[in-house]
Amino acid sequence: MRRRREEPGWLRGAPPPRWARLAPAVALVVLVLVQRITPGDVELGYFLAGLPPVAAFAYGAAGTAVFAAVVLVLVGLPSLGIAHARGSDLATVAVIGLLSVVVAWVRKRRDAQLVSVRTVAEAAQLAVLPPVPERVGAVGCAGLYRAAQHGTLVGGDLYDVRVGPYGVRALVGDVQGHGLAAVGTVASLLGAFREGVLDDAELTTVAARLDRRLLADAAAESVAHAELFATAVLVEFPPGLDLVRIVSCGHPPPLLLRGFTVSEVDVDPGPPLGLGLAGPTPVEPAELRLAPGDRLVMYTDGVTEARDTAGNFYPLAARVPVLATDPAGLAPAVWRDLRSFTGGGPRDDVALLVLSLTADRDGARDAAQSGKKRGPGMR
User: What does the alpha-carbon distance between residue 233 and residue 274 come to, in Å, rounded to a whole number?
Assistant: First the structure.
C-alpha cells in the first residue's frame, strides 16, 4: 500500500527546493547587471543588502556568510561601480549580513531538531499502523488510508490483515473521534486484534475480545475520555476454503465486487464495540462463497459520508465498478476519485481495504498445517 504524502519518510522533511537556493545568486547577478546599465545617479546596489537574509532561509551559516561577504565587497568598493557605501551605511550592511548568518545557524539547528522529532513520530505511527502488504497468506490486499489531521499518518480509522492458525483475518474499524486524539484507542484495538488472530478460534470471539478491550480502557482512571466506542467489521478467510466469514459490529457491511456488479453483503448488524451491549449469544458470522476474481471492499464512513460542494454523499457502490478497471488499482483510483468529488479530499479519516483470494492456495495450505484446523463447518 502506498500513502502518497503519508509514505514512509515524508515526515522527515526535505532540503530546500533548488529554486530557493538559486534565487539569492540569481538576484545578485540581476541586480549587478541592472546597476551596470542604469545611469550613474541612480543607485540600486543597496538592494543587495536584502540578499543575505533571503539566503539564510536556504543556506547554512557558511553559505550565508559567503553571500554576506560578497555583498559587502560589492557595496563597499567604489571601483566596482555598484554602490558607494561609506561609514554607517557600510556598517549597516555588515550588521545585516552578520544577523543573517546567526539566523541561518539557528534555523539549521531547529531544522535538525525538527527532523529528529518527526523521524521518531513517523516510526511510532508506522509501528501502530504499518502499511498493508500486497499479499497476506492466500489473500491479496490493497489498502487506502488517509488521516484527517494534516501531518499525521494515523487517525481514528484502523485496518489490519493478519494470518494465523485459523486463516487470514482482517479488520476495518472507526473509533470515536479522529486525529491524534484517537490514536491511543486505535493502538489498543489493533493490539487486541493481533492477539485474537493467534489465540481465538472463532471470529465472534475476536470481536468479543475487542469489546472487552474498549470496556477495560474506558474503566481505567488514566483514560481522559471514558466514553470509548468503535465500529468495526471483521472478516476471516478459512484456510483451504473459497469462502469468507464476516462479523459486523455496528459498521457498514462490505461490498462484494463480482465482475462489474457490486452488491452489499448481507451481514447481521451487531452492536458497536465498547458499549457493553453484546448479549450472551454472539451474532452469527455471515458466510459468503467467493468466485475467482471476486473482491471484497471494506471501508469506513469517511469514504461514504464525504460530500461534494452540493452536499451529495460519495456514491462508493456506484463508482467501484468503474474504478475497478483502473490500471493503478482500485484503492488508488478510489482516492483520486474521492479527491475530485470533494474538491481536495474529505475532512474525515478515510480507510478502505480491498481483499481477494489469490489463485495460489499454498499460503492457505501452509496456514492450515501450521495451526489447528477449525472445528465447525460452514452453514
Answer: 14
For residue 369, the SS3 value is: helix
Please report the DSSP string for 181-230 in residue order: GGHHHHHHHHHHHHHHHHH-SSHHHHHHHHHHHHHHHHH-TT-S-----E
Annotate 79-130 with three-state secondary structure: HHCCCCCCCHHHHHHHHHHHHHHHHHHHHHHHHHHHHHHHHHHHHHHHHHCC
Tell me if 71 sits within 8 A of 48, measured CB to CB: yes
Q: What is the pLDDT of residues 330-367, one digit of tens each?
A: 999 999 999 999 988 888 889 999 999 986 654 444 44
CA pair distance 278, 268, nearest whole angstrom: 13
Eight-class DSSP state of 280: S
Q: Grid coordinates 540581476 are at which residue?
A: 30
Kindly report which listed range (35-44, 120-129, 253-262, 300-309) carries the lowest average pLDDT score.
Answer: 35-44
Give percent above pLDDT 70 in the chain. Answer: 82
Question: What predicted TM-score, i.e. pTM, was given to this entire model?
Answer: 0.71
Is 139:357 a contact under the CB 8 Å cutoff? yes
> Average of pLDDT values for 13-33?
77
CB atoms within 10 A of CB 123: 11
- Which one, of 139, 199, 138, 207, lies nearest residue 172 by Cα? 207
- The Cα-based distances of 356 to 79, 157, 326 in angstroms read 77, 21, 17
Pairing of strands 255-258, 350-357: unpaired
DSSP code, position 283: P
Other C-beta atoms closer than 10 Å to the C-beta of 155 total 29
248 pairs with which residues across the strands? 233, 269
What does the block give as the cell for 260? 462489474
How distant, in Å, are the alpha carbons of 7, 131, 165, 169, 252 from that of 371?
34, 26, 4, 14, 31
Torsion of CA 145, 148, 149, 153, to 10 degrees: 0
Count of C-beta atoms within a 10 Å radius of residue 80: 15
